[in-house]
Amino acid sequence: MRRDPRENVQQLYPLAEAQGGYFTAAQARQSGYTYSQQHFHVARGNWLRVDRGIFRLCNFPPHEQEDLIRLSLWSRTQQGRPQVVVSHETALVLHELSDVLPAKIHLTAPPGFRKPTPPGCVLHCAALTAVDVEERAGYRATTPLRTLLDVADSPLSQEHLDRAVTEALERGMVRREVLETAWRTSPARQRLAQALAAAGRAMELQR
What is the mean pLDDT of the chain? Predict the structure, then answer.
């Protein structure tokens, strides 16, 4: 018996809604849409094809982080598992730490990730653990702690690092003792020590 098309919509829409209106061809297939039906909805203007195997509901309102959602969907494995995590300077922006304005989107992928880096992105390689990552609507980002450790070991200016550490401490996003003892390379340790000292001076001035 032919399936009622409304059942397909009922399965696909909540999934797309959680991803800012975006979804993959595999997700559409799992929701009941055959490939010929997918082509039909693109041709009718119901869906917008934004990349290979990635669609967007045309009437869905814009999402503030659409580019990050698309990149998360782009990175999925054949089993549908997203691989990249928003990190470094881009994660600083998400956490509203410092006033850095990165020219490119920074992503961290696991070792062995083979897809070519998309235009406008910087791809880092690291084996992140569950404690390093937090879930967002349609994508994942590094936690404030992991983000600070990453940018301390990056070319980010010391001024921006100082400000990011100060703001994170003032807002209770990280604890000083954790930053002092967390694993990092020697140059990053020195940069974080300088940032913690700057944060201490800033907090003294506020008293």
Answer: 92
Q: Over the stretch 32-47, which tens digit does the pLDDT of each residue have?
A: 999 999 999 999 999 9
CB 138 within 8 A of CB 68: yes
pTM assigned to the model: 0.88
- On the question of pLDDT at 145 being above 70, the answer is yes
Q: Would you list the domain boundaries of the chain? A: 5-57, 66-206
